[in-house]
Write a structure and sequence with these properties.
2 copies of one chain form a homodimer.
Chain A: E1 4-5, H1 15-18, H2 31-47, E2 54-60, H3 65-73, E3 78-83, H4 86-97, E4 101-106, H5 115-124, E5 129-133, E6 135-136, E7 141-142, H6 145-155, E8 160-164, H7 176-179, E9 183-187, E10 198-204, H8 205-211, H9 223-230, H10 241-257, H11 259-280, E11 282-283, E12 294-298, H12 305-314, E13 317-318, E14 320-321, E15 330-334, H13 341-355
Helix pairs in contact in A: 2-10, 3-4, 11-13
Chain lengths: 357, 357
């Protein structure tokens, strides 16, 4: 039996999208490809309201590649990395693993990074890059990147602001121009509701001006090489053409639904899930900082999460336990991509039934 | 009209394989995934006759990622890189771009790197890694990696031998144990006849022992991180599950055909194409070093390659002009993956017809 995915990724992908991948391949160096890829880039620019100061790229990779891209091509000497969960922690370790100095601004899992915290660090330290994870999939916390972006753009014009939007872009409100970020990226298997294998990135001219000065960027992690080819509507290395077919179709669907309606649909699912969670349990994230694309629920009733997941899977839906150290302490419901509130109601109703809530 | 791909990659992929990608996604952290992925790894080990000393990994990336992996996780201080075409040149530049010292052993495009050349360099230099491209897609030259591997294993037990087999593995004879290499990898869109987006790598224990000592491996380019997860039949970052479905199916087909028959089929196509080329033109590669998976033909009759490609495309087949500086001087026919000699005969017959050969 097929288990529909409500985990924080990969999320459920419809047959309509999956079947796009069975279109025949074309040469990635021909005019047909460039015309096709230009179309995708235009659609990305439309949907995310990009100005000319911002450029998009699609890499054949998981989202984590962009942690390395930031480490290899963006951080000059010293990055401030905001850490409040497993993925932001990985981002910090990756930059350190690229041989760059990292100062970590850390709060407990479940708490948000506030603008004041970042302001205080920036006043006392000397950073060339600020890194944050917008939507921590491990804790369901959503950090206030618009306010942090405004602070950086106002007071620190030379700092590069890099945002991991892996599980929020194309679901939550993500407009790079308004955030004032310089690097932002998302994985295909989250709100874009595609199979995993692509990462959609948007960078500012400021980021490219920085990158050109950084030595030892390698090849696969070289932002300059990537954008040299993006200029001619190609990719430096053979891209996953099948998944690009699916991305093209997805962008058509997103544009048809419109940016505002996509967000409203996600917010509606989030609100319903939060209300359900508050009625029966408690929310894990600090109040006011709850993710719009996944809900992390505190298991205050000490329910057996593993057992629920198994039983729910038999009814055709897969949700997720807590991440790492939160395994039995929380559980997570991803409501991103193709899902709508009626389907979420059905799944939560099944949990009511199984747990007799 | 669909143009069937006889370019050096991506190669043609059948609907049977493409449609595997429309299977529903599963969680990459569940038991179902690990069972499935273990199956792929077992099939890779069977087909390539891997001993316990060798381990496989599949990364969600183009082949070029592995240039970076070698640069970041393998080369300690000083690599000898054999260069005889565009891709080996990129490999050398990538390792330099990772901040490692590179000594280049270069011969003219069209020439092969011989075992004597490597032996001479190794006698005089102090290298921790030797890098070679087995099958240079830019020139159609096939380097003698079995002899070079034997030399290294006999006289330089500590040297890591890294082989780019991007366009030869699963078509030409590639048995890592017999080559004695430590790192070897191939892209999905060449002889594996899958869409682009995966890279299949095989490494020796010697390579992993080296990697653990190398600082600043990053995350996406960290061989140790990759194999920590491979041990539990997972990948460190969300993999392209759709393409893994297709790879699994491809391994079934390859095993059914058998390793020897796959090679014989490729050799038969290569021999037919070479004979045709020698009758009408000349081969670009040095005699005795011709690729088994693609043929690079010297345009001694000064035919208009661009015009032929256009006309042939209208008949439903796409071949390739020369690479970079060889654009009008050579043309290339890829005969890899799903193709067989009868289909190659048909395509060459069409060229006879168009060019009145």
């Amino acid at each position: 039996m097929h288990e529909k995915l409500l985990i924080p990724g990969p999320t459920e992908v419809s047959q309509e999208i999956l079947r796009e991948q069975s279109r025949y391949l074309i040469s990635h160096r021909g005019k047909s490809f460039s015309d096709f890829y230009r179309g995708i880039k235009t659609k990305l620019a439309d949907f995310f309201e990009l100005s000319n100061y911002y450029k998009s790229a699609v890499t054949t990779s998981s989202g984590t590649l962009w942690f390395d891209i930031v480490g290899r091509s963006i951080v000059q000497e010293n990055a401030l990395v905001c850490v409040n969960g497993a993925f932001s922690s990985r981002f910090a370790k990756t930059i350190q693993g690229c041989g760059k100095k990292v100062d970590i601004l850390e709060v407990d899992w479940g708490k948000a990074i506030t603008t004041n915290m970042v302001a205080n660090k920036l006043e006392s330290g000397n950073y060339d890059t600020v890194v944050i994870c917008h939507n921590e999939s491990s804790t369901g916390v959503r950090n206030p990147i618009y306010d942090i972006g405004a602070l950086i753009r106002k007071k620190y014009p030379n700092i590069i602001f890099a945002v991991d939007s892996v599980s929020s872009m194309a679901g939550d409100k993500i407009l790079p121009v308004k955030i004032g970020c310089d690097v932002i990226f998302a994985s295909s298997q989250k709100c874009f509701a595609l199979p995993p294998g692509l990462c959609i990135g948007v960078v500012s001219e400021r980021a490219l001006k920085r990158a050109v000065k950084i030595p030892y960027r390698g090849s696969y992690t070289d932002l300059i090489k990537i954008f040299d080819f993006e200029e001619k509507y190609q990719t430096p290395f053979t891209p996953n053409i099948s998944l690009l077919y699916a991305l093209d179709k997805r962008m058509d669907l997103l544009l048809k639904e419109t940016y505002d309606c996509v967000y409203e649909r996600h917010l509606e699912m989030a609100k319903y899930t939060r209300d359900w969670a508050k009625k029966n349990f408690a929310l894990f994230p600090e109040s006011g900082y709850e993710s719009v694309t996944l809900t992390c629920i505190k298991n205050i009733c000490r329910k057996k999460i593993g057992s629920l997941i198994e039983k729910l899977a038999k009814r055709g839906f897969l949700i997720s336990n807590g991440y790492g150290k939160l395994k039995e302490k929380t559980f997570r419901i991803g409501h991103m991509g193709e899902w709508n509130v009626n389907e979420i109601k059905e799944v939560l109703g099944l949990i009511d039934d199984l747990w007799k809530l």
